[in-house]
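**Tokenised fold:**
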Amino acid sequence: MTARRTPTGAAVLQPRITSAITEAVLDELAANGYGRLSMEAVAKRAGVGKSALYRRWPSKQDMAIAVLSEFSVPLAEVADTGSLRGDLLAMVAALRDWFTHPHFSAILPDLTAEAGRNPALAAAIQAMIGEPRRRQGAVMLRRAIARGELPADLNLEMALDFLPGPLFWRLSVRKVPLGPAYDDELIEFLLRALGSTPAASA
């Protein structure tokens, strides 16, 4: 049997090039917004030919959403700390890092506005970023329910809408700095809103 030859040239997606393209996409989105994003500009910034982009994604939208998903979804992962309070502290820290990231803090307002005008983009963001992040949040809440820290009849959909809301509103809409006690105060607020008792979440 003839050994299978390792593909070369155009058939290989080199990680170094993919990384350069990813950074270029984020740079372009932060500097110029989604509306002015182009495959040509990304290729030029990354120092590659347009063919390198088209081997990875068929369109500008697919490219942008794939890069943003790769950046955003892992930040929603929260390890099981053993308590709801610990999980929420980890979640708040991850959300803060997401909302204040030098790239994403500039990209998010523009992308939100663009999604309001572009139903296809909005659907892609929801499918590739919103839903995966919500699934990870649901895992955290279901762990707390299983531990007896939250009521079994908790409205998961409403809770998942609520959890990122305070940080998003403060950092992305109001653009107000977080004080040193903000995380602890927010955690106490979230615990009460979710229906956790002090004893259960200690």
